[in-house]
Amino acid sequence: MERHPLNKDFIWRNHVGPFRTISEAQAQAYDRDGYFLMEDAFDLDRIAELLVELDPLEAEFEGFLRDKLGGHAFIARAGEITFNVHPVLRSPAAEAFTRDVVFQDLVHDLLGPDVRLYWDQTVYKKPGTADHFPWHQDNRYAYTEPQQYLTCWVALTDADEENGCPVVAPGLHREGTYKHAFTDLGFEIFPEPPVETVSIPVRAGSIAVFSSLTPHMTGPNLSQDRLRKAYIVQFAPDGAATLQNGLGAGP
């Protein structure tokens, strides 16, 4: 495993309290393994209210992908997996959701006091999707400095090993961003990780919290009738910038 060419002097810094919302055990797990599970962060009524606005946006994108783009665009594939970016700009419910005190306290504990929303997207994996989503680090899709930002994988429906819950390769985040190869399914850090992996089943309303540097993947959706819905909400320190060829290109 090679480091990304821009990753020259990364040092992982452990987290110390006092914490607003996470426990000492969760902080230690995040530093050691690169992730933890925050169970039942949102009640099901709140998730249902959010889906009232997110589902039509995803259906609109699915239609555009199928009718105008030949069913495939970058890593999105109609009828299999869709990535609908920035619903926060079109959904009042999504905007309010990303401002919730749950996220405010979480990012305070893991990133610090000066933080902003970096990215948001829904990811819907359709029943019968045979392909996994490759092992990757989020920081490889847009190399960001500082490298250590925060991914909140919010389950909008129950996610398990049958329908494609997250799977992580713990401990590898501490070296920073690795070199990836691009495949038809997306960026890939390795076909098989060099450490024992951990599946993270996530109930609707719970959050898989992991570093942008934590290698992770999701498996196929082998179910026949269970659409797996997730809302990915990411936060970065204020002033973070995406780098292109070593130059700041904006957040």
Description of the structure:
The protein has 251 residues and is of the alpha+beta class. Helices cover 22% and strands 28% of the residues. It contains 5 helices and 17 strands. The strands form 5 sheets. A 6-stranded antiparallel beta sheet has the order 1-13-8-15-5-4. Helix 2 crosses helix 3. The C terminus is likely disordered.
What string, H for helix and E for strand, traces the elements in order? HEHEEEHHEEHEEEEEEEEEEE
Number of helices: 5
Instruction: Report the major sheet.
Output: 6 strands, antiparallel
Q: What general outline do the C-alpha atoms trace?
A: globular
Q: Any low-confidence stretches, pLDDT <50, length ≥5?
A: 245-251
Helix content, binned percent: 10-25%
Write down how many β-strands occur, each being a DSSP E stretch of 2 or more residues.
17
Give the C-alpha Rg. Answer: 17 Å
Strand content: 25-35%
- End-to-end CA span: 27 Å
Give the strand order, joined by hyphens, for the main sheet: 1-13-8-15-5-4
**Which structural class matches the secondary elements?**
alpha+beta
The overall average pLDDT, rounded, is: 94
